[in-house]
Every structure is written in structure tokens, then in C-alpha cells.
Amino acid sequence: MSANERIKALKDAPPNGWIAFNGDETKVVGYGNTYDEVVSVAEESGVSDPLLVKVPKDWTATVMGG
């Protein structure tokens, strides 16, 4: 997955939600508003051990370094 694809995936994720990537981080396998929801979506996609990323509520502090 390219850096641009990863950025798009993060932008598409629900604020304060979760995103799941497959084990080698080459594909998004699900989004969810809660941890349990994204794990369930990933498992339904056939990925039993996804890489999970918590999405911030607001990217401002993350981008601005504060």
C-alpha cells in the first residue's frame, strides 16, 4: 500500500473510530466505530489477526503537533 493509499484510508475512516488492515498492511479490510465492530468486520473479510489503528477524533492536534 502506498503512502497516498494509506492517507486516503485514514481520511475515509470514521472520526474517533477504527481501521483494520490485513497482516502485511497492503489492504484495508474494514472500518468501525468501535474496536469490537472493526474486529468483527475484519473477521468477516477473512482476516483473523488484523492490524488495527485508532483514528483520532480530530486530526488538527495530530497534524499540528500539539
Structure in words:
The longest helix is centred in the N-terminal third of the chain and has 10 residues, at 3-12. The mean pLDDT is 87. The chain is built from three helices and three strands. The protein has one domain. Helix content is 39%, strand content 20%. A three-stranded antiparallel beta sheet has the order 2-1-3, covered by helices on one side. The protein is flat. With 66 residues, the chain is of the alpha+beta class.
Task: Kindly give the count of domains.
Answer: 1
N-C termini distance: 28 Å
Rg value? 12 Å
Number of strands: 3
- In spatial order, strands of the major sheet run 2-1-3
Would you identify the regions where 5 or more consecutive residues have pLDDT less than 50? none
Shape estimate: flat
Notable characteristics:
alpha+beta; 3 helices; 66 residues; three-stranded antiparallel beta sheet
Could you outline the blueprint of secondary structure elements for this entry?
Blueprint: H1 3-12, E1 18-21, E2 28-32, H2 35-44, E3 51-54, H3 59-64
Short description:
The chain is an alpha+beta fold. Helix content is 39%, strand content 20%.
